[in-house]
Amino acid sequence: MLGLFKHLLGGSTASSATDHLKRGLDWARQGQHDSAIREFSRALRLAPDCAEAYYQRGLAYFEREEYDRAIADFEATVRREPEGARSYIGRGQVHMEQGANADALRDFDTAVRLDPTAAAAYLGRGEVHQRHNDHEQAIADYTEAIRLDPHNSRAYRHRSMCYLLVGDYGKSTADRAEAERLSEHATV
């Protein structure tokens, strides 16, 4: 992983920027988002075109609920990696949190187009459809998210609710049970 960062950063400042990026990732894994943001910002001062640092800082801002800053960083990542689905997924999640569902849907649609294997894109798009009471489309997206990531308890939980709302109680119960099983298994 460190070799990849050095390759992405390039130049004589790669080692130092890579070190800051690595420290930022370590802080983020520990839930220390302020420290992570500080390290990602240091990496960006040394390597201002590093898409990875913008993306990771965007995630940290999202966790801190600093949504405008998160969007700015995801947009900076999109400019540097226009064919990368992850930035559209991140920005879509921020838009959902802000209630900008049309913007979120556009971002999730773009992410699906760029990477049809991105389960998170289908999950996010399903949530937007669910918010608009389009339960059949939400079920289709959750089903695809589950096909791509069969251990995604959140997709099962959301699909369970949609099945309940369309009156398919058997499937709702089955999905709820699977979501609980997966959640219990994840904590063991």
CATH topology of the domain at 1-82: Serine Threonine Protein Phosphatase 5, Tetratricopeptide repeat
- Silhouette: elongated
| Main sheet: strands, sense, barrel | none
Helix content: over 70%
* Mean pLDDT across every amino acid position: 92
Strand percent estimate: under 5%
Distance between the termini: 28 Å
Low-confidence sequence ranges:
1-13
Task: Count every beta strand, where a strand is a DSSP E run of 2 or more residues.
Answer: 0
Number of helices: 11
The fourth-level CATH homologous superfamily of the domain at 1-82 is Tetratricopeptide repeat domain
Give me the CATH architecture of the domain at 1-82, please: Alpha Horseshoe
Radius of gyration: 18 Å
Q: By helix and strand content, what is the structural category? A: mainly alpha
Could you state the order of secondary-structure elements as H and E? HHHHHHHHHHH
Quick structural gist:
The chain has 188 residues and is mainly alpha-helical. It has helices spanning 2-9, 14-29, 33-46, 51-63, 67-80, 85-97, 101-114, 119-131, 135-148, 153-165, 169-187.
